[in-house]
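Work Package 3 (structural annotation) set out to generate three-dimensional models for the target panel prioritized at the project kickoff. During this period the team completed the workflow that converts sequence records into discrete structure tokens, so that structures can be stored uniformly alongside our sequence database. As a representative example, we reproduce one entry of 313 residues exactly as it appears in the project archive.
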Amino acid sequence: MPLTLGTRLLRMQLRLTKPIARFATIEDARKAQDQLGRMTAEMLKTKVGFKPVGFERFTACFAVSAGCKEPCDRVILYLHGGGYTAGGLDYAKGFGALLSANTGLSVLCAAYRLAPEHKFPAAQDDAMEAYQYLLNSGFLPEQIALVGESAGGGLALSLSLRLRDEGKPLPACIVAISPWADLTLSGASYSNNVRIDPTLIRESLAYYVIAYAAGHEDEAYVSPVLGDFTGFPPTLLFAGSDEILLSDAKTVHKLLRKAGAESKLVIGEGMWHVYPVYGTPEGKAALEEMSVFIRSRLGLVLQNSAEEAIDPV
């Protein structure tokens, strides 16, 4: 289906602001992402509350849905995006609140430590600690869904590889939205889509690689596309057809299927990086599919999407 007028206009606006992003500092990106998260959380304040969780090395909180019906014994661990260099707790609370409102579940938002101050494997260590916290709190693996977008999507895959390698139980399902899973930047879309991607800049991604994991790009825990996905739970992947990271999602999907894991890849035609978080018709449809997938994989009754779905920003 052709893009709606509103989606085309938004895409144009994103493209017009892209040149400005070339000159943005890491601090600029952090402030912008946190502001976006605060706006989203404010919009959902009547539907979602927040409960802080204390970790020694990073900050976190639960986004708690007001629509959760007892027993609320299912949970989502959410890992945010930001190129491993941006995305604090304020930003994580934004999409975490959106997930919570749409699924009716509590979401643990883990604001893992950021590069360049904290390089690999700090983010993976923090994600592991957050997941272990849920297990220690009494959640069974089959009651946990793992969700990540952009770098957080790659981190969700990286965490799952490590869990599997260490003989620890994996979550019930994984959702990776435009996962950054190839920090070697070698996929075909890194060249083919570099001109048409309305938001991402290849040179910025290359800088994030250096900031986060210089010298480790060829390791599966940094670039999950180099890993073996044997034993992985059902996985749902989203990517925009015009984004630089399209190859990452395609490769992950192919490897999951090769390993015998259940995997579905949804490619939004004409869409861009992490398009499900935008309030376009295409983004809303993706968010609804995501919510249905999570609830069904956690063994929950599906909600009435027409009445209960919450619009993204």
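The CA atoms of residues 52 and 61 lie 4 Å apart.
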